[in-house]
Amino acid sequence: MLTLHQINHFRHCGYLVLPTRLAEPTVEALRMMILEDVDNAVEPVVRNQSGEVVRLSRLLDRNDLFLETASSPEVVGP
Fold first, then answer.
1. Residues whose CB is less than 8 angstroms from the CB of residue 62 and which lie 6 or more positions away in sequence, other chains included
2. pLDDT of 16 higher than 90
3. How far is CA 3 from CA 11, 12, 18, in A?
4. Cβ–Cβ under 8 Å, residues 31 and 63
């Protein structure tokens, strides 16, 4: 269960700080997918006033690895 602090942090920053680290190969695979989608402006995205991509939307629908990671024991905990 998330604490109020964790919820507020997520709403403000857009990410959670996990008590454990994800495996480096997983992090690198996610990073590469994210960078590719940003570089190619794969919709849906949020853009700033200059038109640059600043956020990817519907992340869990982009690739199975995102959903697998989000539902992994390292993320959801015991």
1. 33, 37, 42, 56
2. no
3. 12, 14, 12
4. no
The answer to whether 38 touches 44, Cβ cutoff 8 Å, is: no
Q: Which amino acid makes up residue 40?
A: N
How many Cβ atoms from other residues are within 10 Å of residue 69's Cβ? 19
Which tokens go with 19? 């008590």
As given in the structure block, the two tokens for residue 14 are: 């857009």
Using CA atoms, how far apart are residues 15 and 63, in angstroms rounded to an integer?
Answer: 18
Token pair listed for 33: 């997918």
Per DSSP, what are the bridge partners of residue 46? 55
* Rounded-to-integer distance, Cα 17 and Cα 6, Å: 8
- Per-residue pLDDT tens digits for 27-43: 999 999 999 999 999 99
Tell me if residue 42 falls in helix, strand or coil.
Answer: coil
